[in-house]
Amino acid sequence: MKYKLIVDHYGKIEHAEVVVAPLTLFVGDNNSGKSYLLSLIWALNGGAYNLPLFEGLESLESPQLDQVWDRISTVFAGKEESVQIHSSELVPILNLLLARNKQKIIDSIFNFQGTPIGSLFLEPLEDIQMTISVLQRPDSAHGSIVMWRISPEQKKASLFAHQQDEAGTENSQLKKNVLRSVLQWLLKQKSMKTIYLPAARTGFVLAKDIINQVSRQTAYDLLPGEEAAGVQPFPKPILEFLNSLEKLSSNAEVDTKREQLVSWMESHMAQGSIRYTEVGAKEIQYVPEGAERGIPMRSSSAVITELAPLFLFLKYESFLGMLCYEEPETCLHPQLQLQMGRLLIRLVNRGIAVVATTHSDIILQHVNNMIKAYEYRDDEKFLSEAQIDQDDCLNIRDVAVYQFTNQGEVSVVEELKAGKDGFPVPTFSNALMDILDRTTMIQEYK
Fold first, then answer.
1. What is the DSSP track for 263-284?
2. Which of 7, 14, 4 is nearest to 409 (CA)?
3. Which residues make beta-bridge pairs with 194?
4. 279 contacts: CB under 8 Å, gap ≥ 6
5. Phi and psi (nearest 5°) for 103?
6. Which domain holds residue 90?
7. What is the pLDDT of residues 32-84, one digit of tens each?
8. Is 232 within 8 Å of 359 (Cβ atoms)?
9. Are residues 204 and 294 in the same domain?
10. Which among 171, 250, 275, 316 counts the fewest CB atoms within 10 Å?
11. What 3-state class would DSSP assign to 14?
12. Cα(446)–Cα(442) distance, rounded to whole angstroms?
């Protein structure tokens, strides 16, 4: 379901209304809340399954929820073969949960109690229909299997819900599992993973083994009843980033288009390949073009260590659906920032959504250029002269840009509207004009 996320008094952010597009860019001042909002989007898109969004769902006092569950339970009881639920019936339930658990959600994201949050809710921008039916599988260890289809897209998804007994239609755990999965699907609409790529990736890549080792040992040394606060020194997105890196396997299956994208990155950005070794400590290695042996990350350049996590997730994560990417331009020369802009667009055109914070005017200008190039995507002469492919062109309907501006103790978030030359970013253009004015003054001073 497409929706607008509306938040007030969140950290420094006074007010924000954001619609996540296939490519969403957050630009603007430092320390203005870009990463805060990025983390929240990551969480709502299933970035951490144990975030407390659905805490208290089974006991939520809501006539809307009771009505929805009464209809769904008829399917589990065998009274109906299927039931149709509209997203308009579910959004009020989601908003009740957001209002009830918003502070717990934010505390969980940051592993810190103290980040303020005012209002938090969703405004639906479309109404979709969900058809829920149950297949009884007595031989399945999972119990009942709930399957639904979504109209008009005809997408399919599966939900495994454990039913403890024959009278399981009234079972509170079943109710919680089914409703939670339906609401989660409403937010995500596909069973794909959302990965957060934090800033300071080099540090985490180089220290991940030590961090994981210390965390495991600390958890092992805890006495019964002791709190594990010391095991979680980072915000939840970073912890999940480290956990996800650790779980990657070279046996993962990725589609051909993803493999082609990795090959493109190897030739255009890394001049070599980045891989996981499955021997011993599962080390990340960089293999330069023409080399027979790989070298460890600690002996690689900063550009390699910064790009390594993205390489690995594209190469070894089978169910990648969204990237929440902090400052993808970090450590990149302007020419490589241009290639990063191409990469982000190619990810989007291959069905991987990207929400990114950036201070790179080069990336944004490339996005603007490729929006214009979309008009000529079928013109082979144009593509040849511009030295781009159809995969480089970007539909403006797939892009949203939001500017964050500090205004004293608070920051404001404004959606930038595209003009004939693309998306203007005042914070970028103002800085460039300032340095040009100073250059002119100094050169012409007598």
1. HHHIIIIISEEEEE--STTT-E
2. 14
3. 322
4. none
5. -70, -40
6. 52-191
7. 999 999 999 999 998 876 578 998 888 888 999 999 999 888 887 778 878 88
8. no
9. yes
10. 250
11. strand
12. 9
